[in-house]
Amino acid sequence: xxxxxxxxxxxxxFFCTVVFSQEHYKEDxxxxxxxxKAEAFKSNTFFYKAASFFIEKExxxxxxxxxxxxDTSKENITLTDYAHxxxxxxxxxxxxxxxxxxxxxxxxxxxxxxxxxxxxxxxxALEQNRFEExxxxxxxxxxxxxxxxxxxxxxxxxxxxxxxxxxxxxxKKAAPYLSESVELxxxxxxxxxxxxxxxxxxxxxxxQYQDDLAIxxxxxxxxxSKKIKDFNVKRRSTLNMAVVEENRKDFVKSLAYRKxxxxxxxxxxxxxxxxxxxxxxxxxxxxxxxxxVGLLQAENKAKIIERNxxxxxxxxxxxxxxxxxxxxxxxxxxxxxxxAQKEDLDALNATKDKLxxxxxxxxxxxxxALKSSNTKLLGHLEAxxxxxxxxxxxxxxxxxxxxxxxxxxxxxxxxLQTKQSYFEIASLRLFFIVEQTAYxxxxxMQEKNIQFDNSVLKSEVVFADQESLKIVLRNLLDNAIKFxxxxxxxxxxxxxxxxxxxxxxxxxxxxxxxxxxxxxxxKETGMLSKKEHEDVIGTxxxxxxxxxxxxxNKGEFSIESELEKGAKMIVSLPKTT
Amino acid sequence: MDNVNVLIVEDTPxxxxxxxxxxxVNNYNIVGVATSFKAALDLFYNNKIDIVVIDIFLNGFxxxxxxxxxxxxxxxxxxxxxFLTSSTDRKIFERxxxxxxxxxxxxxxxxxxxxxxxxxxxxxxxxQPDVFLGEEEDTVISNxxxxxxxxxxxxxxxxxxxxxxxxxxxxxxxxxxxxxxVILISLTKMLKLLDATIFFRTHRxxxxxxxxxxxxxxxxxxxxxxxxxxxxxxxxxxxxxxxLPTLK
Lengths: 577, 248
Description:
The structure holds two protein chains of two kinds. By secondary structure, chain A is α+β, with helices and mostly antiparallel strands. In chain A, about 70% of the residues lie in helices and about 5% in strands. Chain A folds into two domains: about 1-275, Alpha Horseshoe (Serine Threonine Protein Phosphatase 5, Tetratricopeptide repeat), CATH 1.25.40.10; about 420-575, Heat Shock Protein 90 (2-Layer Sandwich). Chain A has 20 helices and seven strands. Chain A has a five-stranded mixed sheet. In chain A, strands 1-3 form a two-stranded antiparallel sheet. In chain A, strand 4 and strand 5 (about 500-510) form a beta hairpin. The longest helix of chain A is centred in the middle third of the chain and has 132 residues, at about 250-380. Chain A is rod-shaped. Chain A starts with a helix and ends with a strand. In chain B, the strands form three sheets. In chain B, strands 1, 2, 3, 4, 5, 6, 7 and 8 form an eight-stranded mixed sheet that branches. The mean pLDDT of chain B is about 90. The longest helix of chain B is centred in the middle third of the chain and has 15 residues, at about 110-125. Chain B has two domains: about 1-125, 3-Layer(aba) Sandwich (Rossmann fold), CATH 3.40.50.2300; about 140-245, CATH 2.40.50.1020. By secondary structure, chain B is of the alpha+beta class. The interface between A and B is medium-sized, with 16 and 15 residues.
């Protein structure tokens, strides 16, 4: 009785491993099939998720998603069947057999993997030791052809059937199934499975006290177990051998097997312990690593923050630097401009001051000359000296003329600076302008006996403002007369150098000027106070005015001269086409 | 030939006296001197005026411009004018400039300048530029008068007084009741500017005032004019006879 009990215990120890180890061969194939289905129904997120979790063996998530799938798509029988299958399988894996059975029973017969459902139901019955219920399921499976049962092992079914009959004590029915299972297993050459099958068969015979038949299977199992590393299998086969020897009263051998059994048990325990320790160590190490990683991460974070801070501040500093450099440069530029302007203004102011002093000096001497002349005039008038009176009056009118010209220039200069004067460029006939301007100087030229010749053609037409051109001509003529010796000559004529410009030349046979003076006169702001000819000092205002006037008329001014050889004042003006 | 009538609008007697002196020396006839806007209008409408010389500033206000604007605005009465000014004030000039045709003279001016300005005013007013300044011509033709440059001054001839014109190359002999003189003008311009209903071409070289025709002798190809003048009638130009109002 004790023996039987022991044997029974041995057998029950097997179940789980026996049932489940049969599965995994075909599991991957089935998963692939489900994946295909999931791809096909990808639009249904719940199905897709449920299938994915099912494959990944996330049972809780599978349950949740399949529940949602059931709620949303009640119409589609295919999908609900899958959902029930997922749920049933998940419950089964979670050892909730009652719920699992319910779910499996809800699956319609049309489900394409219905035989799997049958298998699962059978397995559940087997798990719950309801052997008689299990038998019909396995019988149904056994009847299926090889192709229909593609996704699970036929040997497993046979094995399970055998086991059922074994547990029910129906050894006659159990025997053919188990031996067939053994044959199939042997064909598959899976040592572990073969050992299990052998032990099952051995148990079958042993229970029936057919020791002669049982012992070779036990021994075969024992021998095979030596070749594998699974301590559990080794232990079980050794224990079986020990029990067998014990029952045969061969205690020496039994003891040896016992000891081996103990060894394997210890090994198993040791292994378990080692595993546990290793696991603990690993966990510890992982924790340590985690800590380290955490620390490093924190450090890294700190570093990154620091680096970013540095980077930002560097960027901001660079930006500020750029801005300050920009502003500094701008300021420097502005300062430079201001300094240049200041210098210009200073120069201009100095020129203006000089001009003031020279002009006022000139005017003062003119007025002073008039004053003294007037006293003389009064004297001559009293003495009725008419001849003297006449000559004095002529001198006076000369003085007044000079002063008037100076004042006139001053007025035009001021008007020009403030842009107050009227200015209109029109086409002008040069001849008449020259004639009209020269008219005022006729008496002066006669007095000095200067030969005047205006040979400008009447057809010569230029673009200019009449009044400003007259001012220019007045000044140039005035100068020409001033610098001419008595009996000299002044010629005014035109010459065309280019198609666009007409050169008006005022030529005198006077004192002329040196190259230095010439260049000085042509300078932008050249105000002359001292010249070669001390007796005929001018302010330089006249010529300055000429240059400005010519410039606003879009013309050009040049001088050709040599000392003692007269001078040519040349005014280039744009032609009227 | 008659002197040209000038009206002076000027409030400073010294200035107007100087101006009168210069103009009279050059055979201009001074009709009067107005010293105010009102007096100027009076003189202008009650006399035969050919040219007006206007000082922009009358009694401190730019009334001269107002006067110019007024005479410019009256139809058939507007005459050539010259602005006189000592001001180079831009704003005043911009306003004065609007009184087209615009001609101005800056004070102080000399004899040549005033004469030139008067000629310019006539040229501009009758829109016949470059007549007195150029060398090809010397006559401006208005509706009433020929303005002819004689030496430095300007003369005028009443167009109605002309009996006939004889063309000699680029010269034209003008024959009036009292005198005969030569002007420098092209025949084409002459024909274009003279009234075509009164003046007709009778010959390649003759333009005749139809009002002065006394008798036409087609047999001798002659036209008898007042003052015993005779002009040839050429075959090519006989068509004009049809246009003569008296012969229709």
